[in-house]
Amino acid sequence: MCFSIEEYYTNYMKKLDKLILKSFLGPFFLTFIVVVFILLMQYMLKYFDELVGKGLSASVYAELLFFFSINMTTLALPLAVLLSSLMTFGNLGEHFELTAVKSSGISLTRALVPLMVFSFFLTVLAFINNDQVVPKANLKAYSLLWDIRQTKPSLSLQEGSFYNGIPNYSIKVNKKFPDEVSLKDLIIYDHTKGQGNTDVILADSGRMYTKYNDQYLFLEMFDGEMYSETTSPDKPAGKKNEPANFVRNKFKKNVMIMSLESFKMSSTREEYFTGSQVVKNIGQLSVEIDSMKDKITEKRYNIFQNATAYNTYADYSKIQVPEKIAARYQEIDSLKRVKEEEARRKADSTGTTPGGGPEPAYFGTNAERREMLKTSGNTRAVANTPGTNRSDSIALAGSKVPVDTAALARVEEKYKDKAKLADAYKTAVGQARYMKNSYEIQASGLNDIQKSLYKWQIEVHKKWANAVACMVMFMIGAPLGSIIKRGGLGIPVIISIAFFIIFYVFTMFGEKWAREGIVSPAVGIWSANLILLPFGFIFLWQARNDARLFESDFYSVMIARFRSSLGERVRRPQLLRKKPS
């Protein structure tokens, strides 16, 4: 039975693809699990003190670690791809399998195809995970973490110190026996009356145990006394300073029952944690981003309206407003007018305005009134006239209103009395200060919304960038592994950690700069991928040329050539001189 060359080549390539994939999948899953574990432990260490000693079951902690481990996959997948691809092609090069592949006429680029296809599908899967799975896991994880952190530590009485973990009680035990039940020399302050240390119990010995599924604490006390201070709230004024009455009771045995409900972990509703950007997918983030952009536009519009209303001598006619923003301004104006009209209709029955005062009388139509005010030069009144939109305010502000020295001349002409002129200037200064303070307050609120917008935009880009990082890390790891020709967990781990640190550092710096508004969120989050991607193409080009970047002979030859060239220049400098023409 004979095969054609084409059939033989096809079968050979299928076996080669299976070999490479099989060599890659084992290290990939192993390194992925190890990286998730390391990142998870590093992240959970900052909550360690708040998680231990709560007396919770192992299933609660296991659930918490499971949800947070899903969160760690966003960083674990790129690092696992980098390390496993580097180990795979390092092993193939170390055992001369990659040399055999090249000698059979198959290029390195063709050998990378199966893992490249796998990395592409892994990138798509990583994006779906970042967008759909991780937000839901974050919601579960942070709500559960909050419940655990709010849970009180388990009941633990220490010898010689007061324990205040049980509400309304303060307990001191001078000696505890090894059975953790028997006690000696007890002092208990009962604060259930809310009047301070008015009720005290002293006992020679006692026993402590829980019942009913650890819901109640039973405290049996033997050979003790109870002291109680009695006060009368309606004591006459003249007897306020008289000593209070005390009641003392002796007992052979007394049993106190205390509720341990406060030690149980309560489940907080997950709806309380849905306001964070880390628990939303791209669709939900986009809705919030659009809402924030609308708020920013509206606040800027309000600032401009205030400026046109108070700066009556300023020229706004030269301001060029983009069409998109102008359309949004008009939309805001129309929405405001609709709301005002609805409010007026509701107030018609009472004959008052929505603000509570009598409705003002307008003489003529809005257009006629604006024209009358425009002729009189009262731009502030024109801008506040109902129906005046932003473009009208711009046109009216620069129409017939004098500016600069002409404005000062009119003021001085109107106020010929020096005292009235001084009062007018004081009024103008006060108005300017008010405007300045108003602008600073509005700008501060606008800045807060802008920073929140950056955070939400950063989260959108992170979902894409962390997924694409899988492809970038493959472009670095696979060619680099074929260059170093070393497998195992030695050199590949060191190189992978080095590149991952570079990726992590640039990601952190980019995110910080994006939060502060130094760079755009897109540039800040994608900077790590954009910086590392050229390294991948450089390593691929070097691997195709069988470069020996990590072999000492390569650098020895380069140094020898440099020394030889330098020595030739020193021995025969006349060769460097220009020959006469």
Offer a concise description of the structure.
The protein has 581 residues and is of the alpha+beta class. It has helices at 5-44, 48-51, 58-94, 97-103, 108-111, 113-150, 282-310, 323-347, 366-376, 379-383, 390-397, 404-414, 418-484, 491-516, 521-544, 552-571, and strands at 162-163, 169-176, 182-190, 199-211, 216-230, 245-259.
Secondary structure: elements and pairs:
Layout: H1 5-44, H2 48-51, H3 58-94, H4 97-103, H5 108-111, H6 113-150, E1 162-163, E2 169-176, E3 182-190, E4 199-211, E5 216-230, E6 245-259, H7 282-310, H8 323-347, H9 366-376, H10 379-383, H11 390-397, H12 404-414, H13 418-484, H14 491-516, H15 521-544, H16 552-571
Antiparallel strand pairs: 1-2, 2-3, 3-4, 4-5, 5-6
Helix pairs in contact: 1-3, 1-6, 3-6, 3-13, 3-14, 6-13, 7-8, 7-11, 7-13, 13-14, 13-15, 14-15
Describe this structure in words.
- The chain is α+β, with helices and mostly antiparallel strands.
- The protein contains 16 helices and six strands.
- A six-stranded antiparallel β-sheet has the order 1-2-3-4-5-6, with no helix packed on it.
- The radius of gyration is 39 Å and the shape is flat.
- 21% of the residues are buried.
- The model is unreliable at 353-403 (pLDDT under 50).
